[in-house]
Design goal:
It is a single chain. By secondary structure, the protein is α+β, with helices and mostly antiparallel strands. It has one domain: 2-Layer Sandwich (GTP Cyclohydrolase I, domain 2), CATH 3.30.1130.10. It is 23% helix and 26% strand. It contains three helices and six strands; from the N terminus they run ββββααββα. The chain has helices at residues 79-87, 96-111, 142-152, and strands at 32-34, 44-54, 61-71, 75-77, 115-122, 133-137. The strands form two sheets. It has a four-stranded antiparallel β-sheet with strand order 2-3-5-6, sandwiched between helices. It has a two-stranded antiparallel sheet with strand order 1-4. It is flat. The N and C termini lie far apart (41 Å). The mean pLDDT is 91.
């Protein structure tokens, strides 16, 4: 059964033709909607291959690929708001590791997922590519947290 207007009450950006791009970091742009299948444990993968931020020291642009995987509980992130949120990092000066952890923490605050991981695959600068991984799980998913961290060491 399709979602009704009440179920879409917190979603205002999707379908809005007057989209405003925020050039300053803005977690307030994130929107969520209810998970219609909270009894199921399933994985949602969100893939942003064109993430940009700034080096906090030089101000030079950094380009990367952000992967977000999560097991929802009650709330889920709306993808257009996520796109605009990630775009808001464009002029933010942070290290790659900071960006990945900030994204994860903002999404935890928004959704309270059962499990979430954020991976940053940043393009090389100065001959070194940085690939930070951050994850979180509730008390029932601590084994998954450890397994995924160990698996990431093999990448």
């Amino acid at each position: 059964m399709p979602r009704n207007k009440e179920e879409l009450g917190g979603v205002s950006l999707l379908g809005n033709q007057g989209t405003k791009y925020d050039y300053v970091y803005n977690p307030g742009i994130l929107e969520a909607f209810d998970n219609k299948h909270p009894e199921n444990e399933y994985v949602v993968t969100l893939d942003c291959p064109e993430f940009t931020s700034l080096c906090p020291v030089t101000g030079q642009p950094d380009f990367g690929h952000i992967l977000i995987k999560y097991i929802p509980r009650v709330r889920m992130v709306e993808s257009k708001s996520l796109k605009l949120y990630l775009f808001s990092f464009r002029n933010r000066g942070d290290f790659h590791e900071d960006c990945v952890n900030i994204i994860m923490k903002d999404l935890i605050k928004l959704m309270d997922p059962r499990y979430i991981e954020v991976i940053g695959l940043f393009n090389p600068r100065g001959g070194i590519a940085i690939k930070p991984f951050a994850n979180y799980g509730d008390s029932e998913h601590q084994e998954l947290v450890k397994q995924r961290q160990l698996a990431y060491f093999d990448i």
